[in-house]
Amino acid sequence: MSKRYTEELAEWAGKRAKKKRRQDAVAVAFLAVKANVREAMEAGYALTTIYEHMHETGRIKCSYETFRRHVKRYIKAGSTPLPSADQAKVEPTEQKAKSKQEKQPKKGGFEYNATPNKEDLI
Fold this sequence. Notes:
The protein has 122 residues and is mostly helical. It has a domain of 72 residues. It is 59% helix and 0% strand. It has six helices and no strands. The termini are far apart. About 6% of the residues have low confidence.
């Protein structure tokens, strides 16, 4: 007796999911070796030399252009990935709205106020 189509499809989907790479796998791999790359750069090694060694040893599997882009983004620009949810402070919605209004320069013309003025209603 042959398998039902749904069973066959589920088996195929499971195999396919295992083969799929994460889209951010290259960035994650780079962030894992970021300290080593920074240390090698400070020691005076060229990016091409660092890339070739890491690529040959299997530490990274991306192209040189991608490697260079990650160096520019995460090391030279000094930016880091966004903090995790437990590290980030979450502001209440009202505080966010007030801070946005304070940051925007006031322009001439009509200004909307959501709180009604009782004197205007009489």
